[in-house]
Amino acid sequence: MSMDKDEKSDKKDDMLREILKRIEQLENQNKSNKNPNKNKHNSNMKCAYCGKLGHWESKCFKRLDDEEKLEQNRMTTNTKSQMKYINSNVKVPGNEH
């Protein structure tokens, strides 16, 4: 007995549904397994920057804070230097001796 076109089409549709269902299951599984340690405290990790346990240097709040402060200080210093340069080179009319 051979299958007619409708039976073949139904079988293909069922297979496609099963494949799509499996893909969705795998995607959901992948999402939940993406970073299983994200919310876990890992006391074996030691930061090379601050020396504290539980995180790496790349995620160190102290390092990130220090870098931000350094950048702000650099910007402030550059602004002050630029203002001194501008003020020393600006000629005010009437004060020329």
TrEMBL record:
* Chain residue ranges for the region called Disordered: 24-44, 72-97
InterPro entries for the chain: Znf_CCHC_sf
This protein's superkingdom?
Answer: Eukaryota
Which segments does the entry list as coiled coil?
none
Phylogenetic lineage: Eukaryota, Metazoa, Spiralia, Lophotrochozoa, Mollusca
* Protein name according to UniProt: CCHC-type domain-containing protein
What organism does the UniProt record list as the source?
A: Sinanodonta woodiana
Report biased composition (Polar residues) as residue ranges: 73-90
What the entry lists under Gene3D superfamilies is as follows: Zinc finger, CCHC-type (4.10.60.10)
